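Internal tracking record. Fields below are filled automatically when a chain is submitted to the structure queue. Please do not edit lines marked as system-generated. If the sequence contains nonstandard residues, flag them in the REMARKS field before resubmitting.
Queue: standard
Priority: normal
Entity type: single polypeptide chain
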Amino acid sequence: QVQLVESGGGLVTRGGSLRLSCAASGSVHRRNMMAWFRQAPGKEREFVSRIVWRGKFTETDYADSVKGRFTISGDMTKTTLNLTMNALGPEDTGIYFCAATPTTATARARDSRLYASWGQGTQVTVSP
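SYSTEM-GENERATED OUTPUT FOLLOWS
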């Protein structure tokens, strides 16, 4: 079992920044890869970013829409996952979810179905 609790969402104006955090607990072996997804009203949940731990190193990936603006990071104990978001725009509005999976295989890392554990989400709203 893995428990994930997101925080840090809020309302910002275009061009602003936010830092989301995800507090993770439970089986560390079931969160070898963690990710952020988001869901805008009326749209499907979409991949934002992921991080996978490989020993002392981490490997990250980003959706094209956030590359260069968002940064994912996590500590080596896998208890805290962060998403630093800069240059936010209204298109970034949505509920942001933290997710975890025991696998380290990244071929399907952008597919939400790969992740067994999910947080409740935190709302991010960017005004024009």
